[in-house]
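sanity check this:
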Amino acid sequence: ARHAMMMQRAPRQRLRTPLAHARRAEREHEPLARDSTTLARWLREDAERLADFTANDAVLPLRAAEFGHSDPHADGPRVAHLLTAGGVSLLCKARNARLDAAFEAVLAVLARPSAALGGGLDLTAVATLDCGTHHYARALECVDCGDLVAV
């Protein structure tokens, strides 16, 4: 009886599966379409400022744009990794740069001479361009460190 009941359910489940997959794909596509449209608008609006920020007039057209470099937090905007026409690697974050500015302030304190740190630490903050609702940051190149001294 259990097998007969499972056989009766199977056709209904198979009919729902393609529709469920289509709905899931549509839900996953919507944030990407939204983020792409928003990014395109920001790039058009910010092109002149980006040219000054990167010291390179060749910002657009982009060579590459890739989304998903952070947790999208309940379908919120994702960080985009951009490669400009001039070869500059940037991150575009859909929030203002207050957190980055606070981190830069911490690094500035650590760079000052002190009793605990001697001459201070040689740390460089990532350059950012704050546009109010979003900001751009220079992407850092990842380099393998062979030992603690290299770090």
Notes: The first strand starts at residue 64 and ends at 67.
